Amino acid sequence: MAKTPSNMIPLGTVAPAFTLTDTVSGKTVSLSELKSDVATVIVFMCNHCPFVRHIIDQLVQTANDYMPKGVRFVAINANDAEQYPDDSPEQMKKFAEEKRFPFPYLFDSTQEVAKAYDAACTPDFYVFDGELRCVYRGQFDDARPGNEVPVTGRDLRAALDCLLEGRPVPTDQKPSIGCNIKWKQGA
Hints:
CATH class: Alpha Beta
Radius of gyration: 15 Å
Strand order of the largest sheet: 3-2-6-5-4-8-9
CATH architecture: 3-Layer(aba) Sandwich
CATH superfamily: Glutaredoxin
Structural class: alpha+beta
Number of strands: 10
Largest sheet: 7 strands, mixed
Number of domains: 1
Number of helices: 5
Shape: globular
Mean pLDDT: 95
């Protein structure tokens, strides 16, 4: 289990546009359709990563807590599904249904979206304001597999609370730590 930190794009970066397939509905969706005027959370994740599996139930709970407040959540898997069949679109749909994702789970088959976001690990979190400017990038919280820290989503929740309350999001942000994105050979 290699520990890879997120790249921490500059705050204020505008979210790169994308159009991807939602593995649950089978529909093609774009960022412009999915974004919120309040806050949009984009998380790069996958099915098999122990770091994702460690937080997934609390991530679903966090989404269920904040979506009624106008926050949108979007999950994207960019792993090479040929080399990692557990991350295939069919397995993504199964995982999303099993965990009852209240958000779309998109497949980035070309890995171009992950590259545009400079995503490095799973999970890798980005929060964009109503103008799609990055106000937070980094960790869900301090919990990691085996470190005995409770999974709460504290860091992500704090950023969302700031946006919802009209306060600036603190710029002292910790990178996420997770498995590296499984890039295709030669990518």
